[in-house]
Design goal:
This protein is of the alpha+beta class. It has helices at about 35, 55-70, 85-95, 110-115, 160-165, and strands spanning about 10-15, 25-30, 40-45, 75-80, 105, 120, 130, 135-140, 140-150. Helix 2 packs parallel to helix 5 (about 160-165). It is globular.
Length: about 170
C-alpha cells in the first residue's frame, strides 16, 4: 500500500470536460497523474463508486462544501478518484455541481487503485474491483498524509479531517 513519503503512481486517468478551453477538448481528456501533481498541493480522495449512497450524500458533497476553506489553507486542487469511466464521472460532476471546486478523475481500469495498493473487491456485490475509500494530502507529487477507511466505513477520509490536517 502507498504510504506517506511515496510518490503518486505513474498512471494516466481521464477527466470529462463540459466546455472547451485552456487547451482541453470536449469529452474525456487524459490526465498524467505525476505531471498534473508536480508543484501543487492536492487534496485527493477516492470513493468506491460514483452515484453510490455514501459517496453522493456525504463524501463528495463534503469536499464541494469545504473547497474554499481547503484552497484558503493552501490546497491548489481537489481531486476525486473513482473506478468509473470518464462519462460517468462527468455526469456525477454535473449532478453534484463540482465545477471549479473538485476535479472528478476516472480511474476506469483501476490502474491508480492497483498501483497504490488501495483496491476493494466488491465482486460479490456486483461492482467488481473498486477503490478503497480514502483521502490523502499530496505535496509536489508525494503523499504527505493518508487516511484509509476500513471497509464500509466513512470516518477518516472526510473533508473536515483532511482540512484539519492541511491547516495543522
Amino acid at each position: 500500500m502507498i504510504k506517506v513519503g511515496d510518490s503518486l503512481p505513474a498512471v494516466t486517468l481521464q477527466e470529462y470536460s463540459e466546455v472547451e478551453g485552456d487547451g482541453c477538448s470536449l469529452g474525456p481528456n487524459l490526465v498524467d497523474v505525476r505531471q498534473a501533481a508536480t508543484g501543487k498541493t492536492i487534496a485527493l480522495f477516492a470513493v468506491p463508486g460514483a452515484f453510490t449512497p455514501t459517496c453522493s450524500a456525504k463524501h463528495l458533497p463534503g469536499y464541494v462544501q469545504k473547497a474554499a476553506e481547503l484552497h484558503a489553507a493552501g490546497v491548489d486542487e481537489i481531486w476525486c478518484l473513482s473506478v468509473n469511466d470518464a462519462f460517468v464521472m462527468g455526469a456525477w460532476a454535473r449532478d453534484q455541481q463540482t465545477a471549479g471546486k473538485v476535479r472528478l478523475l476516472a480511474d476506469g481500469d483501476a490502474a491508480f487503485a492497483k498501483a497504490a495498493g488501495l483496491t476493494l473487491d466488491l465482486t460479490g456485490k456486483g461492482m467488481g474491483l473498486r477503490s478503497c475509500r480514502y483521502s490523502m494530502l499530496v505535496k509536489d507529487g508525494k503523499v504527505a498524509t493518508l487516511n484509509v477507511e476500513a471497509p464500509g466505513k466513512f470516518e477518516v477520509s472526510d473533508a473536515q479531517t483532511l482540512l484539519a490536517q492541511v491547516a495543522g
